[in-house]
């Protein structure tokens, strides 16, 4: 009976899914985005200093805050929006928080958290009155259909970089890495190949299997001394396990975590006092802009991938997943982390068949289960966790078939949306390029009357923003 009630609540029959598929999808999404538990504190701990606490303790406090914010936001997504999307503190915004606002401008980290908190409250209000949904529905059709492919290329680009398959190069910016001589890259490429083979043969759970198999392969390579262990696994973990044994080492990692986050939680309140209104406003609005368009792009792209969009290219009841993002951002600032957003890695779970809010519920449960094992997330090497991004990137590019490439406005707007995302490392910038190009090309073709007034206003506002931003007038 309990299973039937769950199925009815989440609409399993309507979405043609079942509890086994949803659980697998949720675990897949969590594995794909779990890197944030380590990456977010690694970035924010550069900016956050708390008297009488070590760097390790601060790192662990931020990791706990990251998990709590992810759980709250994803629970809202699961139980209120009933969509299979996972949420967590967003990459890019955490870097802006640390390196631009705190380190660059010298603004106290408490004040930066206060800006995130105010942004979250503003999002809650705008979402409640339908303003965010209205603006997102102004996005031109080719942009909506190109977002999925753009995010796919972006994911693939990120994954290949994290695996050392693509590396930086001063003259050309990027180039192919020394794959054949880099054990890290070799394991990553083999993991990608293995996972793509499984996926092409319709093996259920192919991404999870690929991640776990690649992780085991890396640890076996380290144990067999086929290369220096530090080349394929975390050196500290390997040393601990080698000296104390795996079980003892795991236990030591678990019991030494700093679970008391009271020195971090609530710090935003202090940040609301003694602030410069102009600087605070600019910081808050920049958080607002990037989060708004990142979330919009992710929702539309992932929704397109899961076939959730209607005939007009709109996501029904979009205000509900947007509210999950707004609540998560507000709560995240309260416990001590940067802006929370919907994760593009949700595509991994959707690829595994996740279609309802139960997938998000499983993601939230996995984050809760990760709490006692915060220090163990690094057991999964980067080349194993990031292979999911490469595989999903390949899969998501299939969305380009929905674009009418014979129409100049669609072709130009769609191409810019897809290519600008990875080139600028920003979903927001890719969206903006497509949104700006569409009405201009339509008008040049003599189809100006087909462009909605709101689309012109949005394009002009974006042009003004980028003139100010790239001209150095604002952050």
Automatic annotation (TrEMBL):
Pfam families: Xan_ur_permease. The keyword Hydrolase does not apply. Keywords: Cell membrane, Membrane, Transmembrane, Transmembrane helix, Transport. GO terms for molecular function: purine nucleobase transmembrane transporter activity. It is found in: Cell membrane. The chain crosses the membrane at residues 23-43, 58-80, 87-107, 113-131, 143-160, 180-199, 206-226, 246-269, 281-306, 356-377, 383-403, 415-441, 453-474. Signal peptide: none annotated. It is a multi-pass membrane protein. It comes from the Archaea. GO terms for cellular component: plasma membrane. Belongs to the nucleobase:cation symporter-2 (NCS2) (TC 2.A.40) family. Azg-like subfamily. This is NCS2 family permease.
